[in-house]
Write a structure and sequence with these properties.
With 901 residues, this protein is of the alpha+beta class. Helix content is 26%, strand content 19%. It contains 18 helices and 39 strands. The strands form 8 sheets. It has an 8-stranded antiparallel beta sheet, with no helix packed on it. Strands 7-8-9-10-18-15-14-12 form an 8-stranded antiparallel beta sheet, with helices on one face. Strands 30-29-28-26-21-20-19-31 form an 8-stranded parallel beta sheet. Helix 17 packs parallel to helix 18. The chain is globular.
Amino acid sequence: MTESQENLALAFVNRGLGGGPSLAERRMQSKLTVSIENNAPDNDMAEEARDKATDLMSIDERSRGLRRNSISLPSLNVNELEKIEVAAAVTKPTTLVEDQSSTSSISDGTTMTPSPSTPVSPANLKPMLHFNDDTSSDEEVKQPSKNLFRTKRRSSIAPLPALRLNDKEMMSNDYDTHSVLSNQASITSINSLASLLKEKMQNVPAIIRKKKRETKDYKLRAFVGFLFLVIVFLVGYAYVMYNQKLLSKSYFESIKFHKKTRNIRVLDGKGGELLTGVLGTTLSIEQPYNCLPKNLRDDGSVCYEWNSKARLYMNVVKPPTPDIKCYSFQWETLLEDLYPTDCFDVAEDRGFWYGGGLTKGIDYTLGKASFASSPFVTGDANVNQWGNALKRYFLSSRGVAIQVDERTPLHVSVNDGPGRRMMCLEGRNDKFAFVNKQSRFPELKYTVCTGPGMKSLHNGLGQKSLWDGLTEKDTGVMKSLLREPVWQIPASRPEDLTETAIYNYTESIIALGYLRLGHILVNEFWQRNIGDFRLDPDRFATLDETVNILHRRGFRVSFTIQPFISTESFNFRKAVAAKLLIYERESSRSIPALTRYKSTTSAGVIDVTNNASVPWLAEQLKKVSEAVDIDSYFLDFGTAFNIPRYYQCSQTLVNPDEYKTYFMARFERTLSIFGVSSATSVPRPPAFLSLPPVNSSWTGLQTIIPTLLSYGIIGFSLLMPGPVGGDFVLPTQQLKNMHSFYEFDLPSLPEKELYIRWLQLATFLPVLRFTHLPSEYRDETVTAIAKELADIRQRTVVPMLERYSSISMDDGLPIIRPLWMLDSTDVNCFSIDDEFSIGDGMIVAPVLTKGETMREVYLPQGVWKDGIDESLRKGSRWIHNYNVPQNKVAFFIKMPDNTRF
């Protein structure tokens, strides 16, 4: 500490003992700070900074270009301030003189604290700079003071302590303003221990407050840490609960899938359930993993893998129309004995399910069926699980449909097990139907589509425009089948079918007088042996002449052909030598595979996948046409189970039903085919699909409408029912080993009531087919009913059939429709399987039970005209105990919407 500083401190200490501080001293407390620029250009200011005695400059001159630095004086308490004010009133100002020999510097913003232990006397005071206090009047404007003690050559900056006043931190400038505690402490002399002690004592309260603040900060940090742990726990708990819920994962807007349990829900636009089920039921419940990058697909599919067992791919599929949404699902198993299986709820409270085809139990709605897993291939519904026509298409009344890929080795089960109301789709290879593996391990691939309603969805997914490639001749054949009956020559054995039998049968048709002439259908017995493709010379020596006679009378003649060759046929040896037949698996095409077809116990099958077989068969049929002027052919494929069990074709088939597709693709444009016995895809018009053979009984009669409706839903619009009265008769005893209905003879003349009710139903079907003529009963009642029905068909039914057949060719909808196609919002229409409609224009409700003359009839919305009494009836209601006498059939014609009663 310099002497000038010591003098100044002594003056403050003794200000209460002697005279009070002068006005200049008091002004020094607030105006002792002067700014000094580090690079002052003024030479006089440089001289002044050397602490040498020079002439004093005016404040204005000295302050030019100086930088202000803050220097705090010692802190004074209230008593000391009062003493200063009293002393200032009675004493004169004291002149302060700056010591010329001073060399120490005052740090910017430091606080000088006099040591109470240092004796201070007037003799010790050194002269200091003189300030004129003549301008200290209270009325005058205060001028900013300048710091004279800040030198450029000595500048030490002490750290700025952060102080707290009333829980508020203040930096040095704030503290100086409140005059509580200096923001900085500058130790100006190493010998001033008392000053250092004083400074430390003043900092004690601040340290205590700092500890209090640190205590509060610790509590705050502890609270924040606890809150963080709580948040982490809540987030983790929410995540776990979220993944445990059925709808934890959302894909593609409307598909909700839980990865671990594999529960799935398909929702509509409003969040309502359309479909519920469980995927991968053969897998254990475990958390899947995202597929490895090498297993991902570049089409955007979502992929999950279950621990090297199976992979599931899900993706969005481009829909056929904008209002339909479609999603694909594909399982790829990674194990040989793991069969992917997806099950969906088909209970009636979840909607009514249709499609697939005709089941063994003749179940129109699949929710009523119950059977174990079986291969999805065509067969005899009397023996096998499915009938003669199938399509991998299933439709729900809630507006959702499932379409299974054709290459999937599909097995289907429905309600297999107690309390299990599920339809399950399974991908599994077996030893016959799906023996040819399309992939290393079993796969299951299908598409789920949703729409605004069942009818609009079905319309959007149906096959469009069947007119492509049709000739004028094809159109003429189709219309003739709608207008004219098909007369099937009855013959259970080859010896029953002769040229004379054909001629006499046509004579009986002409003798009826009230039915139009139509198509004469000759079964496969026109050959001596199946596969001869040549007329039997013994029984048909002059058949060409007989056919010409039939043509002149107005008949059309059709022969039944088949791809089977009996081992007794002379063509069998030729076909074996040329390797034209399906051969035994793993036999190097050296051994033909044999099967059974109708009455033939041993026959080979022409391999239509072999390029050499097609021209050979075409040549055989050409010879038949040259011998007899044939109008068309009825193609009898049999079913999938008529293909040899250990079959192998030149080109690998997905399943035995694919054989039909190959055959139609090779011959449909070269042969005039007016009917097929079995199909898994819609045959090219004018070919009609024949319904499966029906037992001649009331039970058989009751199966016709469900079969028509089922086949219409899966896309077969042109349908040909069997002959009136049935195709065969089952023995009274239950057969344990019945392999096919072909084993049985044609029925004898059915009972009269059954024949009449059968004829009433057949009158409203697309094709009217006969084996037994109404005249065989020699009953006027039967004849009168037959005449009336013939008039109704020609006057009312045929025009409507022609109208809706054209519509069907355009949009793929069937001619014979279920009632829900008229109103898909009416729940009463969903389960009705004993009524049907012709397009949207007519409803038919025949009597199907023996001895009944009354029945329940339901009419959808609209106004309907009764076909019996021509009265008008309002729709959307049941007609209870509707009277239907034996000579009448209930039918109702749709009236315009503006019709009034």
